[in-house]
Write a structure and sequence with these properties.
Rossmann fold, 6-stranded mixed β-sheet, 3-stranded antiparallel β-sheet, 20% helix, single chain, alpha/beta
Length: 204
């Protein structure tokens, strides 16, 4: 995830409201973010010890991904290469907020992943998703397969049965850009909305 995606995610949650519990689909456990904002050349992180990047929102949120032990496919078989879209379908429909940043481009089937995300969202839940539009190929942590415009992310969300709240583009250095989207599963719930306070990032 990049710093500008993290900042936009916080802005989306400040605008539309944080609902717990929360899940990060394809997320990481250590808060290290590439700084591609104007003039940015290095890496930013929350001061040591480095918690997961959304730790300031919920201390023990779910991180959904094969690198964290859930490697079972839809048929109940152990699979070290189980695609993320299958793993997400095994999670309960319970999350009030779902985050999916810099992940969609690594999915074998982006529409299936969008449907899996909709599956884990409870009615009235909120999604913040972002994915590269103009970006160098990167194969870490998984094969880099796709690029997404705002319209592309919107299409995936609508095909998954979600309601699109807003979309946008983030401009980074060297002509790089990232598309982002906020969506809901049905009408956004007004219950259990929490105020968020984001931490200040410092250079490590």
């Amino acid at each position: 995830m990049t710093h500008i995606e993290w900042e936009q995610g916080n802005a989306v949650l400040e605008k539309w409201g944080l609902r717990l519990p929360m899940a990060d689909v394809g997320g990481v456990r250590e808060c290290v973010m590439a700084d591609y904002s104007e003039g940015g050349t290095g890496t930013l992180r929350i001061p040591e010890p480095t918690p997961p990047p959304w730790h300031h929102l919920e201390k023990c949120y779910a991180i959904i991904g094969p690198q964290y032990g859930d490697r079972t496919d839809l048929h109940g078989k152990e699979d070290a290469h189980a695609p993320l879209e299958e793993i997400a379908y095994r999670m309960p429909t319970r999350f009030g907020t779902v985050l999916c940043t810099s992940t969609m481009e690594h999915a074998r089937n982006p529409l299936a992943l969008a449907c899996a995300i909709a599956h884990v969202m409870r009615p009235g839940g909120l999604l913040y998703a972002s994915a590269p539009f103009s970006w160098p190929v990167h194969g870490d942590p998984a094969e880099d397969l796709w690029r997404f415009s705002e319209a592309g992310l919107k299409h995936l969300a609508l095909q998954a049965g979600l309601c699109v709240l807003e979309t946008g583009a983030l401009q980074a250095t060297a002509g790089r850009s990232i598309s982002w989207l906020a969506a809901s599963r049905g009408i956004l719930s007004a219950a259990d909305v929490l105020t968020i306070v984001r931490p200040e990032l410092v250079k490590s």
